[in-house]
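Supplementary Methods. Inverse-folding protocol.

Structures were first reduced to a discrete structure-token string of length 508. This string, shown here, constituted the complete conditioning input.
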């Protein structure tokens, strides 16, 4: 079992502990994948299935939870981590990206804390997914995951070139985000005589995007001509072709106050089906273009107040409001059907079923960066803090759970992973799928258990002994329509599932 000191509120420096681990049943999944707190695994920086790419503001390279700078022994940070900036602001009005050589160094240091009031965003999300299991401060969802940092925006303590206030030095753009997705998926410009091409394997199979500034990016390209597709669309589809699994935030609303658990996080029951809007909550629609693309797993946010789950994040957009100029006439919604040909049970037919699952988004503390990049400057490398509530910090939880699933079976496809996450989620709103919480609260235990049963159906009860009890348990589950008996992931219980079980049972 896991070390409770890493998550228990009584021993953790934050009085509610890592409550999100408990409510999403992550400690149970740790046991299932074989994590040993007395002998935690070393980070894996060579297997793409064990690497999560974070497209964000960089990372505090010296933080104690990441094992040292890239290239040093024990570091969790891939030496292939980079900064990818576009030369200009999206408006093209300022050429600022080469103004500060210290910030522009290849090492993707998270410089956000240099700005008063700014959040070390990239450092926080990386820690939630992959902080080191060292018994200090916190532990990430995935113990042996490597971190591929792709910095797409940076801050400077100096005013940007050409005047202006202290603040963002380089911003992300559609081109830089698209290039970052491609880089994580294995794009290498040196291939094919400098024309570029993809490596045989991606640099990271899991791509976590927690940046909310993508509302204006095109997420759907309704054309069969690849050359005419928006950059983001092309990058997502190329990454999908490389086997990547993109996990992206649904986005936040600005009309709510923070909330968090008020009872013991160790004993809190995530199977409570109550979910009510927090006072002041306005159902704003998902605008993130990357989230609208169906080849991404979209994560919303929720939090608990007493015994009620509270809806907190953006909801599925109306089909009529998803309008990508110039190829999609507003009056013609048929193109949506090509991207979302079927609706989950209970889904509103007037809305695109974008949202997959939700995860806790409030009072999620994490690794805090110090913003310094000078290796000769004394650093404070054990900082932790609580950022504002946001789906930014729900997304890496799910990315880490995906990594646990791939640890059991690296051959899972994007469709496999999304299907398993969705059918194993705990329904916390109206019965069935809904626009506010998708399929429900992500459940790491159930998701990993499902993958284990898929990997070796003959050991259906998980006792590591294949006998008649497994056959009995499978037949009971099959007869009751239990989701874990759907071994071919087609959403139905058919003779194909029986055949899969029998083949495994008779072989093993």
């Amino acid at each position: 079992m896991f070390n409770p000191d890493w998550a228990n509120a009584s021993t953790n420096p934050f009085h509610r502990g890592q409550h999100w681990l408990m409510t999403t049943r992550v400690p149970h999944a740790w046991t299932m994948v074989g994590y040993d707190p007395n002998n935690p695994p070393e980070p894996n920086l060579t297997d793409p299935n064990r690497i999560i790419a974070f497209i964000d503001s960089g990372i505090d390279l010296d933080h104690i939870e990441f094992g040292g700078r890239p290239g040093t022994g024990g570091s969790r940070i891939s030496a292939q981590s980079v900064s990818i900036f576009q030369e200009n602001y999206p408006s093209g009005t300022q050429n600022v990206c080469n103004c500060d050589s210290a910030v522009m160094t290849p090492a993707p240091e998270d410089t956000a804390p240099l700005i008063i009031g700014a959040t070390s965003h990239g450092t926080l999300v990386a820690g939630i997914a992959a902080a080191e299991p060292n018994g200090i401060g916190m532990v990430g969802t995935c113990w042996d995951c490597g971190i591929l940092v792709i910095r797409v925006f940076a801050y400077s303590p100096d005013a940007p070139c050409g005047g202006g206030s202290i603040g963002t030095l380089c911003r992300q753009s559609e081109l830089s985000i698209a290039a970052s997705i491609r880089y994580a998926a294995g794009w290498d410009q040196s291939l094919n005589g400098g024309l570029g091409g993809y490596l045989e394997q991606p640099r990271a199979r899991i791509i976590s995007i927690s940046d909310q500034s993508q509302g204006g990016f095109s997420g759907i390209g309704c054309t069969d001509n690849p050359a005419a597709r928006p950059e983001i669309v092309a990058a997502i589809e190329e990454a999908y072709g490389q086997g990547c699994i993109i996990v992206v935030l649904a986005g936040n609303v600005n009309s709510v106050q923070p909330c968090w658990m008020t009872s013991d996080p160790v004993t809190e029951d995530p199977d409570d089906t109550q979910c009510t809007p927090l006072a002041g909550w306005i159902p704003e629609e998902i605008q993130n273009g990357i989230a609208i693309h169906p080849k991404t797993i979209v994560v919303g946010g929720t939090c608990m107040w007493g015994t009620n789950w509270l809806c907190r994040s953006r909801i599925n957009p109306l089909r009529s409001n998803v309008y990508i100029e110039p190829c999609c006439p507003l009056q013609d919604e048929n193109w949506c059907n090509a991207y979302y040909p079927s609706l989950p049970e209970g889904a509103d037919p007037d809305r695109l079923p974008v949202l997959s699952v939700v995860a806790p988004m409030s009072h999620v503390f994490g690794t805090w960066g110090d913003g310094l990049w000078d290796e000769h400057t004394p650093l404070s490398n054990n900082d932790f803090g609580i950022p504002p509530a946001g789906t930014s910090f729900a997304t890496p939880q799910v990315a880490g759970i995906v990594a646990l699933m791939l640890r059991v079976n690296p051959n899972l496809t994007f469709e496999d992973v999304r299907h398993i996450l969705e059918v194993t989620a705990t329904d916390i709103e109206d019965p069935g799928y809904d626009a506010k919480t998708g399929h429900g609260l992500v459940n790491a235990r159930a998701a990993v258990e499902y993958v284990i049963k898929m990997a070796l159906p003959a050991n259906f009860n998980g006792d590591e002994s294949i006998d008649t009890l497994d056959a009995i348990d499978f037949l009971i589950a099959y007869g009751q329509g239990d989701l874990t008996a759907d071994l071919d992931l087609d959403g139905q219980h058919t003779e194909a599932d029986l055949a899969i079980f029998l083949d495994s049972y008779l072989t093993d």
